[in-house]
Request: fold
Amino acid sequence: MYKIIIADDEKMIKRSLRALVARLGDDFVLIGEASNGKDALELVRKNSPHILITDICMPEMDGMELIAEVRKCCGQVKVIVISGHAEFKYAHQALRYNVTDYLLKPIEPESLMSLLKSFFDQDKLEGKRLAGRIEPRWHQNAEQLFRSLWSGQEKELIREVERFQQLVEESTQDDVLVADIYLDQVAYIRRRAAGMCSRISEELLREEAEPSAVGHPSEWFKAACIDLFHKAARLRGLGQTQQIRKALSYIDSHMGSYELSLTGAAEHAAMSVTYFSRFFKEETGMSFVRYVTNLRMEKAKQLLTETNLTVWAVAESIGYSTYHHFAKVFRKETGMTPTEYRRLQKYIDD
Reply:
């Protein structure tokens, strides 16, 4: 699924672009719209789109500032700039930021659609060539690593790191590919953590030494993850409490239960629901519902990719009592149905 974000403060332009993306078919999905550069940057950081389509003149943060920030945190995102003739003077500046293409208003629908399709085809070919790097389980594990890091579970983070190292080293003996995979994982975790809190994003996104500069890639990867853990905790001023640790352990072990609830987690942590809800968000960076949903969706993706369980069985195993509810949440989170997601992962693996 090719993910697209649109940034433009003109409603008619956004409506037109939305219609064009819809005409491209099931391979393309519009995952977010923003009316200013600040909101667009937040969307990019949280969703890692394939393409950002942005106007130049927008409130709060203009298109040029947006592109500069996107290049700092998400260099792989392709950027298409759209502007009026009066703004064409920005074209040279845009090129400095490695903008993929620059289109003038009014946009010719066929030209934009052809451009998007060509990007999709190029990336599909590149994806086949680098199949080892984009294997779905790598990305799923990256999200698990991030969750352990952000919730302050250092022991769990180390376990996830070691499990991932074993997966990578069993899959390939190519040192260059191994280093690339580890680099991708650390970059993903760094972007996710930075996207959770703009106050700490600059330091978290600062470039670090690459694997080749500090010994074996696996040693670098483990050290980099632990360093990010301590850096994020320090910048956020966290002191993970015993109550929250208990709650996180309770949530993980009861993820597959229909009865998992905020009230139950609060009781397990020996807190009132109101206090627990506020404290949980302060400590983990997300609400109880968002944390549980993320946990369940990542497990669902893993099961859909790595097992032959029916979609209903997947839903049941992660705590959803009805397929309809599970499918609705899954589509909202990923932009596709569970069956479409499974089909896409099989296509990538082939």
